[in-house]
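Lab notebook, bench 4. Still working through the backlog of constructs that have no structural model yet. Next entry is a single chain of 102 residues. Request: give me the structure tokens for it.
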Amino acid sequence: MKERDINNTIRRMHKYKRWTTNIKKRDNKCVFCGKINELEVHHIRALSGLINYLNIDSRDKALGCDQLWDLKNGILVCHNCHLQIEKDIKIKNNCKIIEKAY
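Model written out:
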């Protein structure tokens, strides 16, 4: 299965929805600005990067991969902070800024 296809498949899984729900319950608000509206879950290490690193090429491999579902790889952010994070990642091409802030 192509990386993009497996990425979309993972994002539609019940286990993925549970992962995002658990992060929302844990953080409750944007970890950067404290906003409680327009919240989104952000992967600290990009899902596509994990898929490649862990050689996940099927739904079954994704389901069985504990590292993929680690809550430490997600943070709750508001939409505006999420846009800024993505902009910063593109500029710096890594996630060190996020790891330091969280």
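Notes after review: The CA atoms of residues 45 and 73 lie 6 Å apart. The longest helix spans residues 14-27. Flag for follow-up if needed.
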